[in-house]
Amino acid sequence: MTDVQVPLTSRKDWQSDQEVRWCPGCGDYSILTAVQLLMPELGVNRENTVFVSGIGCAARFPYYMNTYGMHSIHGRAPAIATGLAVARPDLDVWVVGGDGDLLSIGGNHLIHALRRNVNLTILMFNNQIYGLTKGQFSPTSELGKVTKSSPMGSVDAPFNPLAVALGAGATFAARTHDMDRQHMQEVLRRAHDHKGAAFVEIFQNCNVFNDGQFEALTTRANRDDMLIPLAHGKPVRFGKDKEKGVIITSDGAARIVDVADVGEDAILVHDEARAEPGLAFMLAHLASSVTQPTPVGVFRAVQTTEYSSANARQLAAAQERNGAGDLSALLHSLPTWEV
Amino acid sequence: MTDVQDRPGTSGNAEQVDHVVIRFAGDSGDGMQLTGERFTTASAIFGNDLATLPDFPAEIRAPTGTIFGVSAFQVQIADHDITNPGDAPSVLVCMNPAALASELDRLEPGGMIIVNSDEFDERNLTKAGYTENPLENDSLVGYKVILVPMTSLTKESVKPSGVKTRDAERSKNFFALGLVSWMYTRPLDSTLDWIKERFAKTEMVMNANILAFKAGHAYGETTELAGNRYSIKPAPQPAGVYTSINGNMALAWGLVAAGQLAKLPIFLGSYPITPASDILHELAKHKSFGIRTLQAEDEIAGIGTALGAAFGGHLAITTTSGPGVALKSETMSLAISLELPLVIVDIQRGGPSTGLPTKTEAADLMMAMYGRHGESPLPIIASYRPSQCFDAAIEACRIAVKYRTPVILLSDGYLANGSEPWLLPDVSTLPDISTTFAAEPNHVNEETGEPEHWPYVRDPETLARSWALPGTPGLMHRIGGLEKEDGSGNISYTPENHAHMVQTRAAKIAGIAKDIPEVEVTGDVADADLLVLGWGSTWGAIITAVDRQRAKGRKVAQAHLTHLNPFPSNLGEVLRRYPKVLVPEMNSGHLAKLVRAEFLVDARTSSKVRGVPFTAAEVEVAIEAELERKL
Q1: In chain B, positions 278-297, which contact chain A (CB-CB < 8 Å)?
Q2: Helix (H) and strand (E) counts in chain B
């Protein structure tokens, strides 16, 4: 995608003139900053970049980017972005939404965008709560969550977003969080460069309705012991001294162990490019809540046929075979008679 | 073209008639639709005017022999201009007892029934609800009944082809087609050519069908049916090249044409639904026109993907039926707010809910008009005959593109599947509906002095907003469903701006009235006692009914709407010109309510919601009743 014609830009060039209207202290600010700082490094033009969003706090994102953008309706961003990406394969199309937008009302469009493998970079800001509607439980809220709409605790089992994405056949699935700009940018760069549908879950703090939800994982003091960095070709290890690791047990489960107990050779070596998604799926299920050590980074990155280019190839093949369409010939293509 | 005189059956032994209405009826697996279509095509090529009414169940293969599994196809052929498939059939072809039980009451008194007598065994009679064989008692007295053992004759005739015994009888619809083709002196070549092409890959089946078709024809020739042969001369028609077309095909081709005329690539986002799926199938074939079709995961994604493509500068379309329109409603409102071109095609069917998927109704007008949240007006176009679906599609696209608005195009199951001869247009005479995209900034930022693009700067004439495509340098902008300031497009919640935007969006749609033809009145324009106002597929029945009533000396005028929002600018004046206004509608009175509200005229409804179109006779009854009503 890198084009020598792309002019050098700075963060300022990617900022729109609109006042940002998230609550002070919202995790969305750090994601916006990370993206605006990253864009000049991606070798892309502002005019060829489109942000499409649904509804929710996260979905205000396009207004703040000096690119083309559409703030659409709740849940539909992946469908709208799919149409745009298929119609215009020359564009760089991003989708931004929250956990309610993309996994609840828009769950169907999300899984179909992923299984079609449309060239989209999908950022799901997961704060595990409905923010814009003022604090109801979301499809990623934990069981027992007490909110305005679940005063006795939620009895809804939550989605595991990465497991959903992988189950839908996502060719790129990753996780990052709003407290580490460098990690976020590295993951977003990879997602952007992926040819096909790229799904990124971003743990994002809602300091008004779900403050501190990810504290156990993302604060500087906790990160080393609670975040498990995934790196392709590297052993899956974490802890201040990399003293802990992940193994696959003989019964096929992923388990956290002390490296000293099992030996370095027993530690799982991450392979994001494996064709079958089983390993990525196991890693997605390693933590069952945000209070347990949780993998971050790229879970899966495989290259398969991208939808809009496959579609474009069919058009090209049809034109190659039949020539450009001839309207008059079409109208005469059924049996005709002359009077 | 061979001379008419050389054609089989025109040599003098046939009685000349000016029209006939034939209804083919059998089991849904009997191939009645195909039989009717082949008879239609042969008649069209022969030069008759015609109109068809396919009438089939929602089940692909309902249990054999049952009444609800009966599939029928009605066609009127004539030596003069006709507009509808006829009221009561004069000939009924019945392939089994269920077909007779289900269709007999449609037949005109004294009509002819051609019966496949082989199928009238005890089992089939019971399934059809007969306790006695109607062929053996006096229940068919008054009709001309022709018993033909079609199943056994077919089995016998196809033996040389080598098809298995159990497959042999599947050719019996071609036997029936051959027989009726003989009876109505249809040319054979077009049907034979079609069989050869259609079954080219299965030679045995091809030969069996040809043998059965010829055997049916020969059966007429060699039996006592000799006194039952008719010919119908070609209808005088304007010179030109014709094809036989149904509404869905014409509509699909109209969309293809609109893409060419707008100089925009077509994008169709669609979810399969009866009776609209054929348009998706047809457009999917025409990739060489640069047409992209996307079979979406649901109706919402159908319109969502289309809207995304519209943002990208494509001529975007979504096709569906009533239940799908309901699901697309929220996205239509977004398209109204974004002011992007989009065509929503609604092939109406009987509702509510799943309703009558394969039967016709026109009860989505109020939904098209008002079925969205907020103040969300959009233009509505309705097609009125199968071939005219072509022009209606172009018109819907023209308005969408020119005014940057979603447009609903209404057709219905009757138009979708009904066919008629169509004088092919010269494509060079079709309108240019192209538009221009923004190429340069249209504003200077007050603070920075930098040029920028304001997405809601409007053309003062049309109120259409500037359309800048992603990929255009310097015109980056954001649009969305939140209320925005006119001009800049920035989010605005101010009371004045919202009122202004609601009024502006409404004024834009209302202003289209200046850009559409006035409604034309025909019949007793100057002194009618009654105006019959119609829209959609009721046209054919209304026009025939009005002609007949005028021939009986009644003073009747007629007007038919293709633009339902906004209405033509002269409609109010036209409605007030006549003492009475009658609106026949395949709903409970949608258009009548709209014109009453808009123009304060006492328009009366004639409603039909039986899943089948009006007959001209029914419209006549309504006209007479309305004329007699004391004011």
Answers
A1: 286-292, 294, 296-297
A2: 20, 25
Task: Flag whether A4 is in a domain.
Answer: no
Using the Cβ of B255 and the Cβ atoms of chain A, whether some distance falls under 8 Å is answered with no
pLDDT digits (tens, 9 = 90+) for A27-83: 999 999 999 999 999 999 999 999 999 999 999 999 999 999 999 999 999 999 999
- A37 domain residue, yes or no: yes
Tokens of B289: 């026109």
Contact A267, A239 (CB under 8 A): no
Whether residue A49 lies inside any domain: the answer is: yes
The mean pLDDT of A121-139, rounded to a whole number, is 96
Minimum Cα–Cα distance from A60: chain B residue: B480
Q: Does B520 touch chain A (CB under 8 A)?
A: no
Query: Which domain, by its residues, includes A48?
Result: 11-213+305-314
Q: What is the pLDDT of residue B224?
A: 66
Segments in A137-272 forming alpha helices (H): 161-167, 181-193, 215-218, 220-226, 259-262
Average pLDDT value for residue range A186-207: 98
- Look-up: residue for tokens 């989009």? B342
Q: Which domains does chain B have, with CATH numbers?
A: 4-231 (3.40.920.10), 243-426 (3.40.50.970), 436-515 (no CATH), 521-628 (3.40.50.920)
Residue among A124, A191, A116 at smallest CA distance from B305: A116
Beta strands at B19-27 and B91-94: parallel, antiparallel or unpaired: parallel
DSSP element (H, E) containing B135: none
Does the beta carbon of B306 lie under 8 angstroms from any beta carbon of chain A?
yes
Q: Three-state DSSP class for A50? A: strand
Cα of B512 vs its chain's centroid, Å: 25
* Beta carbons of B358 and B275 less than 8 angstroms apart: yes
Total residues belonging to chain B: 631
What CATH number does the domain containing A73 carry?
3.40.50.970
Query: Does residue A201 fall inside a structural domain?
Result: yes
Mean pLDDT of chain B: 95
Task: Give the number of domains in chain A.
Answer: 1
The contacts of residue B6 (CB under 8 Å, 6+ apart) are: none
Cα first-last separation, chain A: 57
B290 to A83: CB separation less than 8 angstroms, yes or no:
no
Average pLDDT over residues B116-133: 96
SS3 B407: strand
- Contact of A54 with A97, CB cutoff 8 Å: yes
Share of chain B above pLDDT 90, in %: 93
**A125 burial via Cβ count (<10 Å: 0-12, 13-18, 19+):** buried
Nearest-CB residue to A339 (from B242, B448, B490): B242
- Distance from C-alpha of B25 to C-alpha of B104, rounded to nearest angstrom: 10
3-class secondary structure, B462? coil
Q: Tell me: ipTM over 0.85.
A: yes
Helices (H), A207-257: 215-218, 220-226
User: What is the phi/psi pair of residue B307, to 5°?
Assistant: -65, -40
β-sheet bridge partners, residue B559: B521, B533
Q: What is the mean pLDDT of residues B162-181?
A: 93
Alpha-helical (H) ranges within B352-473 are 365-370, 389-403, 413-417
Which residues 138-197 of chain A have a CB within 8 Å of chain B? none
Of all helices (H) and strands (E), which one includes residue B318? strand B315-320
Angle at the Cα of B80 (from B77 to B85), degrees rounded to 5? 35
Which bin fits A128, alpha (ψ -120 to 50), beta or left (φ > 0)? left
- Does B241 lie at the interface with A, CB-CB under 8 angstroms? yes
